[in-house]
Amino acid sequence: MKKLIQIAQDAVYFFAMSCVLFIPFPFHIFSSQAHITQFIWGKAISFTGQQVFGIQSVNAEISSDSTNMYLLVFLLGITALLFAIISALIRIWTKKRLDILAIIRQILCYYLALMMFKYGFDKVFKAQFYLPEPNTLYTPMGHLSKDILFWSTMGTSYSYSVFGGVIEVMAGGLILFKRTRVLGLLLIIGVMLNVVAINFGFDISVKLYSLLLLLLALILLAPQTVRMYEFFILQKESRLRVVPEAMPAFFNKKLRLLAQILLIGFLLLEALYPYLITGNFNDDKFPRPYLHGAYEVRGVLLDNQTVALNTSPVRRFFIHLKGFMIFQNFEDQMQDYKLEVNQIQKKLTLTNYQSQKKYFQYTYLPKDSLLTLRFTEQKQRITLKAKVLNWRDLPTTKSQFHWTIEAVK
C-alpha cells in the first residue's frame, strides 16, 4: 500500500513537472518552448487524436483549451504514470527519490511565482483587463458573448485591476521564501479558485491552464495539510513542517543567496519585459495608433449622389487597437477586417478571413473630427462621411466614484 501511495505521489509530481516543461506559454526570454513541445509531442498528439479518440482533423497548433492542448495533457498524464511505475523498480530512485522530489518542488514553486508575477503585472499595468475597445462599447450588451462582457466590465475599473494584480504579485513573492511560503500558497489557492470559477462560469478559454496553476499550489501545500488540519479543525497546537530543499553541496550560504537573487531577478525580468521594452505602464493612457477610435456615418454618396442614411450598409465603423477595422450595420451586426494604413498614399487596405483585399482612399480632418472613406463596391463609387465619436466620454469609460446613493442620481 505504501508503495502504491509513493507511485501515485511520484506520478503527480512528474505530471506537474512535465506540464511546466511542455505546456506552451508565451515567454519573452525563453521563446522556444512551443517549438520544443511541437517537436517532441506533435506527432504523438496527431496519432493519439486520430487513432485513440477518432479526431480526424487535429490542428497543429497547441494553444489554450484547444483539442491539441487536451491531448497533450492526456499524454503527459499517461507518460508521468508510466515513468512513476518504472522509477519505483529502479534501486537508485529509492535512494535519491526525496532529493529529486525536493528539486521538483523548488522548480514548481519558482514557476508558480513567475506566473503570479506575469498575470499580476499584467493586471497592474492594465494589459490583461484592458480598456474596452470602441467597437465593444458600441455593441448592444445582448450581442456580446459572456467572456467579452466579463473582460470588458473588468477593464473599465483601473483601481480593481491594480488591486487584483498587487495581490497576485504579493502572493508570488511570498512563496519564494520558506517562512512565508504557506501564507503565499493559501493566497494563491484562494486567487486561483476564483479564477477557475470565473473561467468556467464565463466560458473563458484558459480553463485548463488555470486548473494547472491551482494544482501546482495544492501540490506545494500538500506537505502541510495534516498540521493545518490539526490547527484549524482539531484546534490542537501544531507546527508547520519544514519541507527539505535540495541544493548542490558546493552551494554555501553566500552562493545560495546569490543564486536565489539571480533567479528572482530573472523571474521579474521575464514578467516585466514587455513593459520595460514599450514603456507602457498604464495601457488605459498609452497612445493609440493612428485613426484609432469610433466613427459614425453622417453622410453617404453613391456615384456622387446623396442617399438616405438608413439605406447605408454602414452605421458606424471602428479602428481597433490591434490593427483591425470593424463595420457595424443598422442591425448592429459586425464585420471585421485586418487593417493596414498607408499614411503617405492615404490608403486603407482591408483583408478578410479568406485573404481577399479591399482598398479605401481616406481623408482625415482632425480639426473637424471628420473621416471620409472612398471605395468601389459592385462597380459603384461609395463615399462614407463619418464623424469621430468621443467613446472615452461614455458612462462606462468614465472614472466615477460615489460615497452615497444620492450622488449617483
State the gist of this model.
The chain is an alpha+beta fold and 409 residues long. It is built from twelve helices and nine strands. α7 crosses α8 and α8 packs antiparallel against α9.
Number of DSSP helical runs = 12
- Gyration radius (Cα, Å) is 27 Å
State the secondary-structure class. Answer: alpha+beta
Globular, elongated, flat, extended or rod-shaped: what is the shape?
A: elongated
Report the β-strand fraction as a percent range. 15-25%
Report how far apart the termini are. 67 Å
List how many beta strands DSSP finds.
9
Main sheet overview: 8 strands, antiparallel, barrel
Round the mean pLDDT to the nearest integer and report it: 92
- Low-pLDDT sequence parts: none
Descriptive key words:
single chain, alpha+beta, 409 residues, eight-stranded antiparallel beta barrel
Give an account of the 3D structure.
There is one protein chain. This protein is of the alpha+beta class. It has 12 helices and 9 strands. The chain has helices at residues 2-22, 33-52, 67-88, 91-124, 134-137, 146-155, 158-174, 181-201, 207-221, 225-232, 253-278, 405-408; strands at residues 293-302, 305-307, 316-319, 324-328, 334-342, 347-351, 357-365, 370-377, 380-389. Strands 1-3-4-5-6-7-8-9 form an 8-stranded antiparallel beta barrel. A hairpin with a 2-residue loop joins strand 8 and strand 9 (380-389). Helix 2 crosses helix 3. The model has no long low-confidence stretch (mean pLDDT 92).
